Write the structure tokens for this entry.
Amino acid sequence: MTFSEFLLMVPFVLLLGSMAVAPVFAPQWWLKHYAKVALGLGALVAGWYLFALRDTHSLWDTAHEYISFIALVGSLFVISGGIHIDIKGESTPLTNVIFLLAGAILANILGTTGAGMLLIRPWIRMNKYRVTAYHIVFFIFIVANVGGSLTPIGDPPLFLGFLLGVPFWWVAKNCWPMWLVGVGLLLGMFYFLDRRNFLRAAPAVRERETAANKWRIEGLPNLFFLAVILVAVFIEKPLFLREGLMLVAAAGSYFTTKKSVHAANGFNFHPIQEVAILFAGIFTTMIPALAWLNHSSQSLLGEQPTEGIFFWGTGVLSSALDNAPTYLGFLTALHSTAGTTDISSLIISHNYQLQAISIAAVFFGAATYIGNGPNFMVKAIAEQNHVRMPSFVEFVVKFTLPFLLPMLLIVWLIFFRG
């Protein structure tokens, strides 16, 4: 790495450092100034690429990826916010496991963003008498990340892969065993924790939780707008027609949904606004980091990298850089390794490596708040509902390392050890 390459990556390091440290030591300052920090650091990098390097191509590609990302995430956020699931009664550990499993399946239809935004509020309500941080963190692990690894709609990196030519059903056909193991292990860990929490609760709470839940759903007309999103995913040309349809569907959902439904959900635009601003900074400041990764892939990965190298490389960087652009970076590195730009040829010759990249990008996206867009939104909604959420560092130390990492090791040992 040259000194100039290092300097160009400083804004990205500063942004990640600010996101990790500022909310812990200066939460009010961060809440007031995070937009200035993220957009200011992004502007520094964008300005250098535009005026010093005259590299408009990299900026345009990044802008296109960001628009596609935020259009899908934002439209699913708005539409899911127009559907209200009302639950009366409390939940047992077994009911919670069934709910999370249903959320993991639904994440492949609504996307991790849509499923996360639709289910996080009822999830908090059905556990309101004993909800703790681990309820929200495992929701992030399962519903907002790992569950969405079966379709391109499920998670942003898989959607970007679909845009680049990976067949729609390739993901389900090749990744379902990893999905089954990953989701199953996390559900088992959650049941152990939740059962212990349940037995420690007061007798009155346990008795209340054994009563039958009553469910009522409002805002079902929004399923039409969800269908529009699903159709739009398959539109390739003209440019930005896909994203335009998604935004139109989101607007239609917002203006036709009853105010009472939005009020019942506590719906507002703050979570998606925070994601849009922070990820604008992340996408921009990480241009030099991804460029360095692409140029150095051969020396970093070796001449014949195994699927294990792609699994851990994609995964570790996905947890720190955001999984969508990291997926693109390692997909580019795989093209370089394979000596082809044709996706069909790549699938034939390097299918296991592509599986490793796909699974790692989705699974490791759960490792930090910045690993995947929905993580921040789930955190924001939980905090709005007065659930104390762990800080960036606490999230990693108390939950990622003791719970997520063992699952990742087992998935690696079974599928990608090579």
In short: The chain has a mean pLDDT of 88. Residues 3-416 form one domain. Strands lie at 84-88, 214-218.
